[in-house]
Amino acid sequence: MEKPFRILVADDEQEMLELVSSYLLQEGYTVISAEDGTQVMKILENEKVDLILLDVLMPNLDGFLTCEKIRSKSNVPIMMLTAKSDERDRVYGMKIGADDYIVKPFSPKELLVRIEAMLRRTYEFNDKESSLLQVGALTINLKARKVVLNHKILDLTRKEYDLLLFFVKQRNQVFDREQLLDHVWGMEYNRGTLRTVDTHVKTLRYKLGEYGKMVKTIYGIGYCFEVS
Fold this sequence. Notes:
Layout: E1 6-10, H1 14-26, E2 30-34, H2 37-46, E3 51-55, H3 63-71, E4 78-82, H4 87-95, E5 100-103, H5 108-123, E6 132-135, E7 138-141, E8 146-149, E9 152-153, H6 158-169, E10 174-176, H7 177-185, H8 195-208, E11 215-218, E12 222-225
Parallel strand pairs: 1-2, 1-3, 3-4, 4-5
Antiparallel strand pairs: 6-7, 7-8, 8-9, 10-12, 11-12
């Protein structure tokens, strides 16, 4: 994967900020740092950022509020960094637009692997693959990360888009919730967070309108995107 990507690290703990930044610099990434959400928003107004590592417990503007503000303007990948391991915090972070969630203390190797996976999923495409996927009146533009249905662009969150893309690419195949979490979210979840899949499927169906019925519930197993 081509580097340097520009990664914004936001954490009010100076030691953690310097530690994470050093990991990223050693891997060849360009690092921009911030100590609270207010600084994050100012940086995003003036600089291009490819991925954000966002601590939850920050002063002035915490990570959750910052994530919501970012998502109102941008689809840049966001990974939440936090000492909180409560399941409700993880689920809430995903609902408001975070793409991944790692609990402190974490290993440098795990952090770097997750970052690279997020960047690959977001920015790398196979040149031999068409940039458009189409199912009837539904078109997915891979390079623009846009979904058009009946000539209208759908307002999808990052994870709704990723879930739909996975379904369309793996059409007519049945996946259980754990498989969907692994393939779409790209991280290990405990079983208590499986309902995040149901939440995203529900909102995706709603936004797809008449095409939402193509996302079939396979009772006792999971979901399937059925195309005749």
